[in-house]
Amino acid sequence: MTGEMEAVLVKETGAKGDWNVLEIGRIALPALRSEEVLVRVEACSVNRADLLQRRGLYPPPPGASSVLGLDFAGIVWETGTKATAWKRGDRVFGITAGGGYARYAAVHRDHLVPIPENLGFVEAAAAAEVFFTAHLNVFLEAGLKQGETLLLHGGGSGVGTAATQLASLAAARVLVTAGSRDRVQRCLDLGASFVINYKEEDFAARAMELTRGEGVDVILDWIGAPYLQKHVRILKPRGRLVLIGLMGGNTGDIHLAPLLTKRLRIIGSVLRSQSVREKAALTASFKEKVLPLLASGAVRPVLHRVYPMEAVEEAHQLMKSGAHFGKLVLSWEKPGEAQGP
Ligand SMILES: NC(=O)c1ccc[n+]([C@@H]2O[C@H](COP(=O)([O-])OP(=O)(O)OC[C@H]3O[C@@H](n4cnc5c(N)ncnc54)[C@H](OP(=O)(O)O)[C@@H]3O)[C@@H](O)[C@H]2O)c1
User: What CATH number does the domain containing 141 carry?
Assistant: First the structure.
């Protein structure tokens, strides 16, 4: 298929173009390689990285679409000559290094996940990036085990809501932080064992108290520099810190001795720049371990709000404000328009 499609475009990047720079325009359809599938995107989600990319701070890796969007849910529209395991009309979702905010996305055949019957496009889009991220980092990278304690910040974030559910289902103890009291009950409902309001008390001191001075086994961290020293202090011997973001800053001092004496591991992890092969292996693992949980309803995407694609700027502003709990989803569906090939 050749021609044009609608996509969200960034009119101006950089600090000046911080707000009111997104508009729907027309660009060329992605060229389809033989191992790829052209997906007609019905919904995608807003991820925090999108706020950086629109400012020119988080460019896509080489070869990826320059359009915003790290996930998608939609319908198989066309298949490459080596992607015939999929057929037109299949409902699919997944992660991508770019291009989710477009009407069509070219996705490698091994990076697609079938949408379970109990989920619509919006729910699938809400699940993709955050459940992939949680599965990869909490289990595959940090190796969280039954009975261990996980600490994560932002229990009400997209990633936090996914990681809390997966970890509590795996019979781990989950300590989460939240910046306001109204989030506490919702985090507990998702399976958190304890919620620490980091604006009212020192999360590290509280985590030590809650673990009777033993500390935690795994920390899922996207705050970075300001918490680094505390994180090293509260990790148990053989503890693992997985750093997946730098919301608080990227330059931190660290006292290295505890890394040696406690034999700690600090792991940096990014989904977006993974190779085709790495992402295929991760997708296979996701299908085996997480998809059945989504399909049975044992875990669920937490949806804060769905926006029509035209309201993408509003959705970004809400994410910037931090007032959301769970996911913000963008939908291409227009009232009265049938979904399907
Ligand atoms: N490396 C990867 O592959 C990868 C993949 C996906 C996401 N990420 C990263 O993961 C992070 C979460 O993404 P998201 O889309 O889920 O974001 P989000 O929904 O916007 O959530 C951000 C969360 O951070 C919390 N927070 C902010 N400052 C904090 C602080 N100083 N102390 C404790 N908590 C703080 C907020 O909690 P309160 O509102 O309660 O304060 C909020 O819940 C982002 O940094 C994102 O870039 C990385």
Answer: 3.40.50.720
Cα Rg of the chain (Å, integer): 20
On average, the pLDDT of the chain sits at 95
Which structure tokens are listed for 287?
């299908």
State the closest ligand 1 atom to the C-alpha of 222, by its place in the atom list counted from 1.
Answer: 45
Same domain, 241 and 218: yes
Q: What is the CATH number of the domain that holds 56?
A: 3.90.180.10
Is 36 part of a structural domain of the chain? yes
Asked whether 178 lines ligand 1 (CB < 6 A), one says yes
Domain holding 180, by residue range, is 130-268
C-alpha distances (whole Å) from 254 to each of 151, 218, 259, 262 are 19, 18, 10, 14
Pocket flag, ligand 1, residue 159 (CB < 6 Å): yes
* Mean pLDDT confidence for 282-292: 98
Q: What type of residue sits at position 293?
A: L
Q: Among the three residues 246, 268, 290, which one is the final residue of a domain in this structure?
A: 268
Q: Are residues 107 and 136 in the same domain?
A: no
Q: Is residue 46 part of a domain?
A: yes
157 lines ligand 1 (CB under 6 A): yes
Q: For the chain, what percent of residues have pLDDT higher than 70? A: 96
pLDDT of residue 149: 98
Helix (H) or strand (E) holding 130: helix 121-134
In a domain, 17, yes or no: yes
Phi, psi of 76 (to 5 degrees): -65, 125
Same domain, 23 and 104: yes
Question: How crowded is residue 276: how many other Cβ atoms within 10 Å of its Cβ?
Answer: 13
For residue 13, what pLDDT is reported? 76
State the first-to-last Cα distance of the chain, in angstroms, to the nearest integer.
Answer: 14
Counting ligand 1 atoms within 8 A of each CB, the residue from 55, 159, 185 with the most, and so the one to mutate, is 159
